[in-house]
Write a structure and sequence with these properties.
Elements: H1 3-14, H2 21-35, H3 46-74, H4 80-84, H5 88-107, H6 114-130
Helix pairs in contact: 1-5, 2-5, 2-6, 3-5
Length: about 130
């Protein structure tokens, strides 16, 4: 479903060398909002939003499963016919699909502030690592 976005986001991410991941995520969220309004209406009715959250959660599970499959292919832990057709671009696209689906899901929960959460998480990790 997101293959049309995978190449766009992949090329976008390649241009972000030297930018903080937080900034990349913020820019990707803006990209998602601008690119595909049908997934993210501004003020959806609560029941419709609940259905969209559930749908995105299921889709995220599907995308993570596809990523797992390509990681196994990358590690050479699949049957030979799957290994023969593997390209690193496949793995890259699956990472992007997971990221993209996760960000769409996060956007469906209006109370979330990913920027604030990223800062909080980085602070916790730094404190833990310095302990």
């Amino acid at each position: 479903m997101y293959n049309k976005y995978s190449l766009l986001i992949k090329s976008y991410l390649m241009k972000t060398n030297g930018i903080k991941m937080e900034d990349v995520i913020a820019q990707l969220l803006e990209f998602i909002k601008d690119r595909d309004k049908k997934f993210l209406s501004e003020d959806p009715p609560s029941k419709l939003n609940d259905i969209r959250i559930l749908g995105r959660t299921v889709k995220l599970g599907e995308e993570v499963g596809e990523l797992n499959n390509d990681i196994l292919r990358y590690l050479g832990l699949q049957r030979q016919d799957k290994l023969d057709s593997f390209k690193i671009e496949d793995l890259e696209e699956e990472f992007v699909d997971v990221l993209f689906t996760l960000l769409i899901l996060a956007e469906r929960v209006p109370e979330l502030n990913l920027s604030r959460a990223i800062k909080r998480k980085i602070k916790k990790i730094k404190q833990r690592d310095n302990a």
